[in-house]
Amino acid sequence: MRFPRRTPTRNHTDGRPRAKALVGIGLLLACGLLTAWLVPASPPPSPSAAPLAGVVGRVYVTNQLDNTVSVIDAGTNKVFATVPAGTAPEGIAITPDGRYAYIADNGSAKISVLDTRTNKIAATVPVGNKPTAVRLSPGGGSLYVANGGSDSVSVIDTRTNQVTASVPVGVSPVSVAISRDGATAYVANSGSRSVSVIDTRTQRVVRSVPAGRSPVGVAVTPDGESAYVANEAVATVSVVGLGARAVTATVPVGEGPFDVALAPDGSRAYVADLGPGKVSVIDTRSHHVSATVAVGPPGTDPFNLAVTSGAVYVTEQGAGILTVINPKSLKVVATVTVGTSPYGVAVSP
């Protein structure tokens, strides 16, 4: 039996299990942990599912243990299709025209290409070992794939669905961000406390920027001046000045920050905090947490984020739900039941 992978990096930051002072206590803790894995966390009480004004399109959620993708109508917050995908689907990205979804199949070292008109897999592309995250270039012509088990990034030409480059990066890359002009890709390397900076014209790493311990999420501001990096093991977000190539601010957030996403205008950074079941909201001008949004009790595991001008979407891996937050009121307006162990989320036009 496979258990939900609630946090891919939590157990290999130092490569060694922690010693137990007493064997009996260790066994009791282990039994309790096993029970927590076997019994899904209870989701928070469902709020009103009234649609948000002006929100349209579709939301796609990968369900890691079901090998499926849930397709949700963003206007109604209702699941209208469940699509078979590859083995252990994780990251997902949608082309700018909404025509295709690219899915990282972590268990089969492939990218599945989902035709969104037919809701069927149209192609698969072999990549490196344990692909975790995918990110499209602004025009949608190239797909960047973080291969966590190969310490590399695969670059796919989306016109041909062929790998055109394999770029060595740091240890255990978990996520990828692309600058708005498409000239640069940023890769969070959870095992080497760094962010690799790739020149997308040459497909080479041009520099490595230090981050905190176990950096797992990365997002770049619209002006391209800063990157926000979620450091899971130390409960912080590093603000990296990309010109200075150094950390310019460190923002404490909740336990186990796993993903970070920026508002379209760059004014806020949203951080999914695994441990306390909340989303931290960082004011990007002051580099301080300006608000927190409770999305469930501990164990619901808010994991990954997608942000539009009208909504913030959060996958909650332990609860099997997608939570929808109104970015104006910072209130939860809907919870949508999806599959088992939801991981990635992306929004189509």
TrEMBL record:
Residues 36-139, 144-219 form the YNCE-like beta-propeller domain. Gene3D superfamilies: YVTN repeat-like/Quinoprotein amine dehydrogenase (2.130.10.10). It comes from the Bacteria. Keywords: Membrane, Signal, Transmembrane, Transmembrane helix. The chain crosses the membrane at residues 21-39. The keyword Cell inner membrane does not apply. It holds the Pfam family YNCE. InterPro entries: Host-pathogen_enzymatic-act (IPR051200), N2O_reductase_N (IPR011045), WD40/YVTN_repeat-like_dom_sf (IPR015943), YNCE-like_beta-prop (IPR048433), YVTN_b-propeller_repeat (IPR011964). NCBIfam families: beta_rpt_yvtn. This is Beta-propeller fold lactonase family protein. It comes from Streptomyces humicola. The lineage of its organism: Bacteria, Bacillati, Actinomycetota, Actinomycetes, Kitasatosporales.
